[in-house]
Each structure stands twice: as structure tokens, then as C-alpha cells.
Amino acid sequence: MREEIITSGRLNPHIDPYLEIWHWQIPLYLFLGGLAAGILFFAALYTILGKEDKYPGAVRRAPIIVPFLLVLGLFALFLDLKHKLFFWQLYTTVRLQSPMSWGAWTLMAITPLSMVWVALHIREYFPKWDWKYDILKEIEAFLVKYKYYLAWIIIVYAVILGIYTGILLSAFNARPLWNTSILGPLFLTSGLSAGAATIILFAKSEKERILFAKIDLLLIVIELFLIIHLFMGFLASTSVQIDAANLFLGGQYTAPFWIFVVVLGMVVPAILEIMELKHIKVPVIIPVVLVLFGSVMLRFIIVFAGQMSRWLY
Amino acid sequence: MRYAMAIDTKKCVGCADCVVACQTENNVPIGYCRDWIVEVTDGTYPQLEIELRSERCNHCDNSPCVRCCPTGASHYEKGGIVVVTHHKCIGCGACIASCPYDARFSHPDGYVDKCTFCIHRIEKGENPACVAVCPTKCMYFGDLENPNSEVSLILKKRKHKTLIPEAGTKPQVYYLI
Predict the structure, then answer these.
(1) In the prediction, which pLDDT does A6 show?
(2) What is this model's ipTM?
(3) Beta strands B74-76 and B47-55: pairing type?
(4) Spatial separation of the C-alpha atoms in residues A304 and A121, rounded to whole Å
(5) Which architecture, in CATH terms, is B3-176?
(6) Closest B-chain CA to A25
(7) B130 touching A, CB under 8 A?
(8) In the predicted model, what is the mean pLDDT of residues A235-241?
(9) Which of B71, B116, B63 is nearest to B91 (CA)?
(10) Is B62 at the interface with chain A, CB within 8 A?
(11) Residue A237: left if φ>0, alpha if ψ -120 to 50, beta else—which one?
(12) A82–B32 CB contact, under 8 Å
């Protein structure tokens, strides 16, 4: 038998009895950032492939929500800071070893880029839109001419944004649940899946809906594979990671994770999407909402459960 | 220069004088602490073994908190002491999550706070407050690179360990066992 107690009564708020430093703001931002990355990825991808006219939902229509997602996410991040008035210190230095520094600079680049993208396609929503000043018209003409290159820049930033949301957590070896390099690809795939699902809502043609249902289906399968891989890795690792995995395999996060994330967020929408591909009528909103719900829950559960996993000494 | 601390678990009685001294010296807000006492009991009655440890930031050589800080507020001072510059800290909590020892906390004023090895006292040539007040003199502080410092000599003489070295942090608070 072994008992360890802190006899001098360490009860630092948000540290003891277990870490609670990150609340709803961080997982919400991780979701919004991942979703924004997913939408921008497909918008840029189909521009690069030259299929803009074939898939206008992905390229022109869906990205309109991206600046709102990113601004909301940035606001959530700001709310998370405890020393708020010093937030600008993020932009006084570049720290290559800090994923958070990478994230801050990526957001600084991709937020205005997403706004530019929306401005270029504003006529999709307001056909009579006209820029008031000549300079804006000239800038627009310039950007339209080089849109292909703009798409390449956006796709690179979208992948960095999507993958960094996972790397942010996996860089912490102090929290065994987060300390796995699978989290980067898992969060990227989850973000792309959420993006593909959202694009289904904005799609105009049956053909586009079916394409993105297929893409989403593929991404869900990859996600399930990564989740199995995640647990295989944990169970074959050190005792602290086995303990972390047990939070989901019998521990207190078992029910929320497997029911909300895996069944409701992945398996059910996958079945509904297969039914749709087989031409059985399903209201499209149901799988989309379920995928987004699963994506949100994945981040909340991983962030909260990760803070409970620790090195015992 | 490499500052380090050695704490004798055989001499420590767990009085928590170091905890109170730190709170007074560093004006630690009520309800918080930068150092604390851990009591480990092994075995079943009547075969029991107790280890008492005064714990604090380990001022690691490979500090995850310094690595993940996005602004450079968490940094190494002379002698490897890990310090947070208050006016650079944005309170994002990354360093708190990155510390396997949970040695950091969010100060009510917003910035992140932790043990500084009493750097303001070291600069004057004094020992950290916890070391200075210890009634059993179970703590040793000094420069590891100086072979004749108190801490180097005791580490040469006695068996010792560090906390979770397998986390790869290279902690610099040694426990004599």
C-alpha cells in the first residue's frame, strides 16, 4: 500500500485537487478554429483544382461564416487569458518551440486572409455589390487574377491551423492523455470533417452535396481509425498513459466519450450519410448537426479529461 | 553556474516552516503556496515507512514551461533559475498545464507565479527563505558547478533522487534518501 498526501495543505485554486486551468473557452476555440480550417481547406482545394464553378457551395458560399468563426474563437481565447491587458505581448516575439506562439501568428494571418476570401466572393450573396472606391476595385481585380496563388497560401495556413489545435495539447508531456502525436492528425481530420459537413448545408446542387457526404464519410472512417490507434498507443505505453486511457475505458469519461463523440458524432452520421448515398431520404441537417456536435464534444472531453490525467509521484 | 537544492528526507520533520517562510518572504496571496510538504507512507501497519518531502518548482534544466511560453515571460535566469516576468505574462495557462509537478499557479493579479529560489535573496548572497528558516537544517542550496559548494558536497556523499525524472525535465531539486 502506498499513500501520498500533501500535508501542508496545498490547495492552489485551479491546480488542486486536479488541474482545471482551461475551461470552456479553449475547447470552444479549438472547435471553431478546426471548423474554420476545414471550410477554408476545401474552398482553397477546389479553387486550386479549378473546380470552382462545379462546387460553388464550398468555394464561394460556405467561407462566409469563417471570419465570424475565427473572430468568435479569438474572443474565446481572449476570455481565457488571466492577464488580459498584456495580450499584445504575443505579438512582440516569435517562439518556435511554443505551439501557442505558432497559433497566435497563424490566426493573425488567416483571419484577414479569410476576410479577403469572403470579400472576393461577396457577389454570391449580394449580386449588385459594388466597391465604393477605385482602389478597392483595383485590389479586387488584382486578387481575382492571382486567386490561384491566394488559394495556395490559404490551404497551407488552413492545414497549420487545423493541425496546431491538436499539437497545442500534444506538446504537454505533463498531461499523459494529451501527450500523443495522434492528437494533431485527429483534430485536423475532425476539423476537416466538420468543415465538409458544414459545406453540405451551403451546397446548391445534389452533386455537390453527395461529393461532400462522401468526403465526410471518408474522414469519419479515418477519425475512427485514429481513435483506435490512439488507444492502442496508450495501452502499449507507460503506466501514466495506461491510466489516462482508462479514463475512457471504464473511468469517468467512458460514457460521454463513446456515446457523444463516437456513436452520436461519428457512427450515426456515417450511417445516415451512407443511407443518403443509397438514395434513402434523410433530412441533411441531421447528420451535419451530429458531426458538428461530435466535433465539439471531442474537444471538450479531451481538454477536460487531459487535465485530470497526470504523473503520480 | 547551476543553482540547485538538496533536501534531506531523513532530517525533514514536515513542520511546514518552509511553506510559511516562503509565503511571508514572497507575499504569496492567502490560499496559495509556492512550496508544500508531501508525506508518503509505504507498507501496511506495523511495517510502515514514511518519507517527508518539501517540494517546490524544480527549476528544471529542460523546462517544459519555458518551452511552451508564447511570449517568453517564462525564462531562465543566471544559474538556470526559471522565472516569470510578470509584465510579459498573458496568463494563458500553457505553462501551468505543462508542469508535471503542478508547481505553478495563476496569481489573483493575473500573471503566473511560482517559486523563484528567492532570486532576490540569492543576488544578495543569502540563501532562499525556505532554506534559511529550516529548523532541522535539512535543506542545502548552492552552485552545482562549484565542487566545494554545500550542495555539491552533500550530493557527493549521499544517495539521492529527483522527482519524475522520466518526464525528461532534468529537475534540479534533489532529495537525499
Answers:
(1) 77
(2) 0.92
(3) unpaired
(4) 39
(5) 2-Layer Sandwich (3.30)
(6) B92
(7) no
(8) 94
(9) B71
(10) no
(11) beta
(12) no
Q: What would the pLDDT profile of A90-127 be if each residue is shown by its tens digit?
A: 999 999 999 999 999 999 999 999 999 999 999 989 99
CATH number of this structure's domain A25-308: 1.20.1630.10
Domain chopping of chain B, boundaries = 3-176
pLDDT at A312: 73
Q: Chain A contact for B177, CB < 8 A? A: no
Dist. CA B4–CA B152, nearest whole Å: 9
Domain boundaries, chain A: 25-308
CA distance to partner chain A, nearest, from residue B146 (Å): 30
CB contact under 8 A, A16 and B33: no
Q: How far away is chain A from the Cα of B130, in angstroms, using its nearest Cα? A: 14
Grid cell 490566426 — which residue? A107
* Cβ neighbours around A107 below 10 Å, total: 22
- Please state, in angstroms and rounded to a whole number, the distance separating the CA atoms of residues A110 and B6: 49
Q: Within a 10 A sphere around the Cβ of A224, how many other Cβ atoms?
A: 15
- Checking if the pLDDT of A313 tops 90, the result is no
From start to end of A201-271, where are the E strands? none
- Inspect the interface and report whether the beta carbons of A7 and B39 lie closer than 8 Å: yes
Q: How many CA atoms lie within 13 A of A8 on its CB side?
A: 26
Geometric angle at alpha carbon B96, from B93 and B102, rounded to 5°: 160
Contacts of B94 in chain A (CB under 8 A): 98, 100, 172
Give me the long-range contacts of A217-221 (CB less than 8 A, separation at least 24). A217/A270, A217/A273, A217/A274, A217/A277, A219/A189, A219/A192, A219/A193, A220/A193, A220/A266, A220/A269, A220/A270, A220/A273, A220/A291, A221/A270
Which chain A residues touch B43 with a CB distance below 8 Å? Answer: 1
